[in-house]
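User: I'm new to structure prediction. If I give you an amino acid sequence, what do you actually give back? Let's try with this one:
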Amino acid sequence: MGSGQEEMQLVERISEIYESISKLDCLSPSMEVNKLFTELVHACIPVIPVDVSELSSEVQSMRTHLIKLSGEAEGLMENHYSDILATFDNPLDHLDLFPYYNNYLKLSHLEFTLLSRYVLSPPRRVAFVGSGPLPLSSIVLAARHMPAPAYLDNYDLDADANARARRLVRGDPALAERMTFHTADVMDVPAQALRGYDVLFLAALVGIAHDDKMRVVEHLARNMAPGALLVARSANGARAFLYPVVEPAELKGFEVLTVHHPTDEVINSVIVARKLPAAHSGAPPAVPVMWPCKCCEKVQGFHHFGHGSIMEEVALEELPS
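Assistant: Good question. You get back a string of structure tokens that encode the predicted 3D arrangement of the chain. For your 321 residues, that looks like this:
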């Protein structure tokens, strides 16, 4: 089957699912909602060489609305499971109740493995922008990959989401001491705060519209400390119907170190970039420095920071769960 025919069938199938999703009265978890979004994810997982920017304006409009609906449904699902987990004395002992927990384990391991290649010393201050009511990424990073003294600041626009997130870590005082939750738009986070982070993770749904995403990237490029690392989540191919795309060439003011597009059930692509020094105060972000794509290279990853003598060489296509 030619790539053009595959693309046509993909768009047709996703359009059918979109029509059904857009007719739903409510996107909270239910048998019908779960069924439709499961079908959507399964339709987008196969590696199909589609460039969503080249699709018709009608399809691109549909895609933008679909991402918004998916983001809303994802938020409601995370609220639902965060509330369930909060009923336990130690919610962190029951994270596997969330049906996509294993995906978060894989994604966090992937991000950590890519990141650790470029970190000379363990990061002490880490930010996660867009943490949500079920901040599994930052919890997994803190608990499995970035032990004390690493300190993680989580930012989200929604005060209720942060309240839910705080409940999840209350049963682990040691972890709770290393994680804070701030209700703020990253665009309002001052330069003084952003310059304090060694690593900043940018969630996929921060800035759904392309222009909004680029404004966030520009804000970070102007205000992160030179040499600090940005880990940005993106999407590739058919998966771009689920999440916004960040093109490496759009990361002005950063040196793009590596890009990885998963081919398994992990949906998000991962870009690791280093903040470049500004030419002078107030200067516009520099054109991104591009390294060759390392999608198929092997990387050296620490089991966790602070135990740098224990290393493993991991093929990205064969990362363990």
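You can read the tokens as a compact description of the fold. Here is one thing that stands out. The beta strands are 125-129, 151-156, 179-183, 199-202, 229-234, 254-260, 269-275, 289-290, 298-302, 311-315.
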